[in-house]
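Hi C.,

You asked whether I'd gotten around to modeling the 225-residue construct. I have! Everything is below, sequence then structure, no commentary in between.
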Amino acid sequence: MNSSVGNTARLIGAALRALLVLTVVCGIVYPLAVTGIAQAAFGGKANGSEVKDGSGRVVGSSLIGQTYTLPKSHPDDPAETAAPDLRWFQPRPSGGLGTNSVNTQYSLLLSGATNKAADNPELTRLVEDARAAVVRDNSTATYKVRPQDIPADAVTSSGSGLDPSISPQYAGLQVHRVAERNHLGVAQVERLVADHTEGRTLGFMGEPRVNVLELNVAIRELARG
């Protein structure tokens, strides 16, 4: 009996010591070490790839797409679609799964793809409407957008619906409109697009892209002079 109690006590003691050691190693030492390495080697990425404006204010993350729209005429009307603010480069169409219906304190778009087939009538209508909007919104007195020149990312959403980047071709279609709306020279805006165009990852993965948020921050700073 005494031997059994003693063995049980030793096992409990060993388990408690193991719990204490593992708690310290896995719950304190390891997280601190990983956090320290991440901050030292990848500070920007570890902090969420934050994008700051000229005053140092955080305006978003380079990993998550944003919308650039005008205020709604009736903010409480869920059926009203906000019009794009044409001063700024516009991102890909948003293909979220609908609006947030759980925590209604915030106006959130749920991420996700539509999963509509290529011959889905609703998808066809959305693409046609988006193409017409691209032509209408980006044509100016001196520059006309041709429907055949519109790239796919201008009229279709990404798998997440929150893609932060657009193709250089889509950015190029928007240059004249952005320049006109911000009273800038076309060459100035084209130079900013070129400066913010990223090549393929490691030279062969993915496609060239332009981060919309970073480009719009640069446009804002240039327009402010």
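If it helps when you're writing up: The chain has two domains: 2-43, 50-224.

Thanks,
B.
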